[in-house]
Amino acid sequence: MWLALLALAGSTAASCGGGGDCGGASVSLRMAASQDKVGLLQRAADEFADGRKVGGRCVEIEVDSKNSGTAMLALARGWNERTDGRRPDVWSPASNVWAAMLRLRLAGSDRPSPIADGDFPPIMTSPLTIAMPRPMAEALGWPGKAIGWEDLSRLATGPDGWKAYGHPEWGAFRLGKTNPNLSTSGLHATVGAYYAATGTTSDLTEADVTAPKNRAFVSDIEKAIVHYGHTSLTFLSNLLRADDRGQALSYISAVTVEEDSVWNYNQGNPGLDPAQLGKRAKPKVPLAAIYPKDGTISSDHPFVPLNWMDAEKKKVADEFLKFLRSEDVQRDFQDHGYRDHQGRPGRHATPQNGLLPHEPKTMLSLPSDAVLDTMLKTWGELRKPANVLLVIDRSGSMTEGVPGTGKSKGDLAKEAAAEALAEFRGQDEVGLWMFSARLQGEQDWQELVPVGPMDDARRRTLRERLLGLTLAGGTGLYNTTAAAFDRMRAARESGSINAVVVMTDGKNERPGGLDLDGLLQRLGTREEETVRVFTIGYGEDADQRVLRRIAEQTDGASYDSSDPNTIRDVFTEVISNF
Questions:
Q1: Where is this region: Disordered (predicted)?
Q2: Which of 292, 390, 506, 526 sits in a 20 to 30 Å window from 169, CA-based?
Q3: Ramachandran region, residue 74 (left: φ > 0; alpha: ψ -120 to 50; beta: rest)
Q4: 37 is a domain residue
């Protein structure tokens, strides 16, 4: 059906008519796309390539998941396939803003830009919303009352929290928002908060961003943050698990996500994978999408050809873009919660599904590149402080070499962790432990740097201790994680993100200590100022399943670095939670 539509649209790529000789190697096109739409795009790519030839050669298209901000950084560095993954021919971040950020990164450097100037055509669109558990949204007046950032700022800073709306049992207002340096929803939400502070909808200036009154407004919103992160999918997955426990109203009060995420969550599909639709029960407490009355920004999911493509690949890319914008494909996108490339909602955009098809009424314009740059630089001063203990595995298996690098797994991990320290600011408090098995008598861990303010001296000490780690011993994962959690729980600070980051390349090898059930029971305490555990499974021998269970028990997140070459990006994504 889609192939027939493409032919009517004037396609120059010939159909194979059900198979035949491909005339040698296929024309292979690789696309890097934001995680939320990878499943939909791969399904469309398979339809497009089925039985299709270009110049007598068959077509293959592979769509790789790559976070928008992470891909932008990889492109700015020149895209190293060893560390960044397979080099794409086409890039589809969630917003054209990332193309602007890439050009900004490259400005003044001698590295050529891999993209053309200007904006790129959208594949689909999705406006930013503030998604709330429906009872909370209704307490604020949804769907009839217009709600904005100022309302949430008052709720976040008011002494009574949800008590002011007749629900003291809901406690304080807690917001989930991603890191604007890596995530589109986080960046768009930050832009929206600044516009709300100024009362305007366009022409935001650097003076607006640095004005004390506007900084204070944005800071008040940031104080309500639970934690940050590189993707909103973490919040949605944690929220669905809380819903399973009957605690959907205790994890977060709101999370900034695109409209399509609200629809997918309400279908029981927080990971936005079309193959998973209908395979899980819908949440007992659905989300409602609030479209800020101050205005919002729509993610336009652009199709960005990269300059290194040859002529044959460019022809395939051009035809694939036409296909993606054809009527039937656009309808499929709408059926999965997106709006089409012209911004029109589909049949599922109804209040019953938590969506309001006639919203948003006010759209915001993206600020200039220079204003965005200033905004991101100053956001680091306004974000919620972090109180973090880094716990690094120093077991003997970390001495294994990584092919093609001339370094061991331990070398790469130590360098990545040391580099990630740059993401912490002076208002943060950071400490460092290492662990193996029976490192100090019966104790599996050793404190290298106590948790304390991240001044220049501590930053230097942390870096020196990380790079100087010696590698030997077994893996006392469970005892160490429990001890780190207990230490941070005793030292947790109100008004900070309190967390433990555990990186290991193996499984628990400590006889006589805690077992997994004992650890999970220890971590299961949930309080107003909770400690979250973030885990990194490093290398092929790490037990990713167990590490996910550990992180999920505290409403944290688990990160998979099975390929040691990815550890730099993984550490960046982990630290983006703070």
A1: 337-360
A2: 292
A3: alpha
A4: yes
Q: Are residues 130 and 190 in the same domain?
A: yes
Structural domain includes residue 344? no
pLDDT tier at 544, thresholds 50, 70, 90 = very high
**Residue-wise pLDDT tens digits, 340-364:** 999 999 999 999 999 999 999 999 9
Residue 300 main-chain phi, psi, to 5 deg: -105, 0
Domain CATH code at residue 53:
3.40.190.10
Q: Following DSSP, what letter does each residue of 458-493 receive, concatenated?
A: HHHHHHHHHHT----S---HHHHHHHHHHHHHHT--
Q: Are residues 264 and 412 in the same domain?
A: no
* 327 shares a domain with 215: no
Cis peptide leading into 360, omega within 30 of 0? yes
Structure tokens at 352: 């019953």
Residues 81-111 have pLDDT tens digits of: 999 999 999 999 999 999 999 999 999 888 9
Residue 141, CA distances (Å) to 127, 145, 192, 196, 363 in order = 20, 5, 21, 19, 21
Tokens 């960005």 — which residue?
304
**Cβ count within 10 A of residue 270:** 25
Q: Model confidence at 23, in pLDDT bands (50, 70, 90)? A: low
The residues, ordered by sequence, that sit 6+ positions from 191 with a Cβ below 8 Å of its Cβ are 204, 297, 364, 366, 367, 372, 375
Q: Which amino acid is at 575?
A: I
The reply to whether 470 and 356 lie within a common domain is no
Do residue 365 and residue 459 come from a single domain? no
Predicted TM-score (pTM) of this structure = 0.89
Identify any residues that bridge with 451 across adjacent strands, giving them in sequence order. Answer: none
Specify the DSSP class assigned to residue 13.
S
Burial class (CB in 10 A: 0-12, 13-18, 19+), 126: buried
**Residue 92, number of CB atoms within 10 A of its CB:** 27
Q: Confidence band (pLDDT; 50, 70, 90) for 22?
A: low
CA distance 562 to 578: 23
Inside any domain, residue 343: no
**pLDDT for the residue 14:** 38
Pair 399, 540 in one domain: yes
327 and 284 share one domain = no
Which tokens hold the place of 151? 């309302």
| Six-digit token string for 536 | 């990194």
Domain range for 266 = 126-298+349-377
**Which residues touch 236 (CB under 8 Å, ≥6 apart)?**
255, 257, 261, 265, 270, 271
The angle at the Cα of 258, spanning 257 to 262, to the nearest 5 degrees, equals 80
Domain count, the chain: 3
294 found inside a domain: yes
HEC assignment per residue over 211-280? CHHHHHHHHHHHCCECCCCCCCHHHHHHHHHHHHCCCCCCCCCEEEEEHHHHHHHHCCCCCCCHHHCCCC
Q: What is the pLDDT of residue 437?
A: 85
